[in-house]
Amino acid sequence: QITIRKEKWVTDEFELLEFLGRGKFGEVKRCKEKSSGRFLAAKFVSIVKEQEKKDVYNEIEIMKSLQHPRLIQLYDVYENPSKKQICLILELINGGELFERVIDENFILTERLCELYTSQICEGLNFMHKMNILHLDLKPENILCLSKDGHRIKIIDFGLARRFNPTQTLKVLFGTPEFVAPEVVSYDKVGYGTDLWSVGVICYVLLSGLSPFMGDNDGETYNNITKAEFDFDDESFDDISDEAKDFINKLLVKDLSKRMTASQCLDHPWLKKSIAPTPEPLAKEKIINTKNLRRFVIRRRWQKAVNALLALKRLGLNF
Ligand code: ATP
């Protein structure tokens, strides 16, 4: 049971350590619990507007009900009204972002590993959807690796997540252009399928390094998404199995009710046959060239830096 603690501030009980990452509303730092010596992550959120407080409370409320090994766990929450800051104490994830890891020059990416990562994303999503929660911001930056050696991943950032009642109409106007579904672009009813579209995009990028709907500007990207037209013509897909292509074809479908559900994804032949990973690729196994993926990650890093600057501007810190 997590209650929001107002009588103490995080520094009373935790030693704050190095910087781990920057989000829209503040920094994430590694921290050590003074009483137990346990390492965790402290995510700070600065509140400027009343709506932002409501949004963080929503994130906290949702995280409380999501206890699953593929989803980041929340341990504690501190609120400091005078400083207008909220601090979420989260499980520490040590392996960094999945896409950053797979582009490392010593990393050997194979289709089998992509299957393994995708199936874990679907497991986490399947649990969320069973709890009637939509993530609504699935993108590569929100998939972290548990450690620097294993292949286990976790879904993070429930900042845009929403409880979903299928009998009611939910519409949203947010998300990250490249990964949002057609119904978000056209401001129509969203649903479980909205998250599955993003899984399709993540999977396409992971296998090829190419972004299926990316245009020269956001307007063009939205246009491409609305048409839901994409192909596997690029040579990056030459060695990719038909099962993988079929998997993506069944997710990047314009009508959200016709997309596979998370549970159907786990039963799809591409993920069903998944064999446990081995440290070295199996004989005859094709290695995926991550040249394009490296370019993709560098471009996203730039985008993130721009977003971080915009976030600082929002706090009134101009450069
Ligand atoms: P965004 O702008 O992406 O919506 P946000 O404000 O919701 O961000 P997060 O995505 O939760 O913030 O965190 C920002 C970054 O901090 C992540 O991309 C990740 O690199 C790092 N990070 C977040 N949580 C953890 C954690 N528990 N352990 C390690 N690193 C983390």
Describe the overall structure:
The protein is of the alpha+beta class and 319 residues long. It has helices spanning 10-13, 50-64, 98-102, 111-130, 182-185, 192-208, 218-227, 242-249, 262-267, 269-272, 291-314, and strands at residues 4-5, 14-23, 26-33, 39-46, 74-80, 85-91, 133-134, 143-145, 153-155, 162-163. Strands 1-5-6-4-3-2 form a 6-stranded mixed sheet. The protein has a two-stranded antiparallel sheet with strand order 7-10. Helix 4 runs antiparallel to helix 6 (192-208). It is globular. The model has no long low-confidence stretch (mean pLDDT 91). The structure holds adenosine-5'-triphosphate. Adenosine-5'-triphosphate is lined by residues 20-25, 28, 41, 43, 72, 90-93, 97, 141, 156-157, 159. The site of adenosine-5'-triphosphate has 19 residues, from strand 2, strand 4 and strand 6. Residues 14-271 form the Protein kinase domain.
Provide the descriptors you would attach to this structure in a database record:
319 residues, binds adenosine-5'-triphosphate, single chain
